[in-house]
Amino acid sequence: MRFHSVAFLLLAGVGTRAQIVPDCGLVPGWAQQGPARSYVAENLFEYMDGNAEGYLIYHFVRMNGVTCKSGEKSILIDVSEMDNPESAYGIFASNRDPAAPVEKIGMSAQIQPRRAIFAKGKYYVELAANPEGDYTATLKAFALGLEKRIPGTTHLPATIGWFPKEKLLPGSIRLVPQSVLGMSQIRRGFVAEYEFGKAFIAAETSPEAASAVLAKVKARVGEVKPVQVADEAFEADSRYLGKVCFFRKGSYLAGYVNLAAGQDAVTLASALASRIP
User: Average pLDDT of 38-54?
Assistant: First the structure.
């Protein structure tokens, strides 16, 4: 019996961890050139050179890729597996063009004339076309074909929906994989830009862990004023972060920084806290 790989993603690794390998046959007229690529965290630098760290900080697990050819045209397809969907969306958001529109392919996608990226489940997919030209239709066809065969959620991380929409700058929500707000105490979290300042939400492992981190942040900020927001909170005028309000709700740390003059930090923080489950 013959098995055809055309129009399918191969699940490689029988008896081991399944891996998703892209297939050039997803779009008619394209065929694989050369061997498939495969990298893990330990050797990704061999392929990405100086860009490897930008993947590793989002908890990169492995990458499988192929080069597809049609005449003189080529498209590189790389599928990166991250540790979870949040990380996959995080690296997508860090690589998208904030000035360009996104599409609903997987969790989110961006298709441009020579480049396409999207995230679905714990996978981040990149396509790059050469030489110069408009490959929009072909890249979208590949992306749609890949999306159908990659498992996992198509829903955005729930945290994104907790940020208030009023005066939120479009495309500004992103996952900061380390040192949120430039503070090493807050290891990982989402940040959103507003017309009047910046908001963040970071999850800790427990309420106790979140409370301990908040205490460290308070010590770093310096002189603070306790306020009534969620489980515990304070506001302050920080030398580096301007007018701020930090609070804890359960296992979450959140708040606003760099608030413009005239903004009521406690009111804003209370509204944000009400949206966090």
Answer: 93
Q: Answer whether the bond into residue 131 is a cis peptide, omega within 30°.
A: yes
Radius of gyration of the chain, Cα coordinates, nearest whole angstrom: 22
CATH number at residue 269: 3.40.1000.20
DSSP result, 25-64? GGSTT-EEEEEEEEEETTTTHHHHGGGTHHHHTTTEEEEE
- pLDDT, tens digit, 9 for 90 and up, residues 173-205: 999 999 999 999 999 999 999 999 999 999 999
- Residue that finishes a domain, picked among 128, 149, 170: 149
* Residue numbers of the domain that contains 255: 158-275
Give the pLDDT score at 1. 32
Tell the residue number behind the tokens 């540790």, with chain if given.
83
pLDDT tens, position by position, 130-154: 999 999 999 999 999 999 999 999 9
Residues 137 and 176 in one domain: no
Q: Which of 228, 89, 101 is nearest to 159 (CA)?
A: 89
The CATH number that applies at residue 65 is 3.40.1000
**How many distinct structural domains can be found in the chain?**
2
The dihedral sign for the CA sequence 222, 177, 256, 229: negative
Nearest to 121 by CA among 84, 90, 92, 94: 84
149: amino acid identity, one letter: R
Question: Which amino acid is located at 87 in the chain?
Answer: S
End-to-end CA distance of the chain: 54
Asked whether residue 195 falls in the same domain as residue 111, the answer is no
**Contact 167/108 with Cβ under 8 angstroms?**
no
* 92 plus 205 within the same structural domain: no
Question: 162 phi and psi, to 5 degrees?
Answer: -85, -20
- The residue ranking higher by pLDDT, 3 or 113, is 113
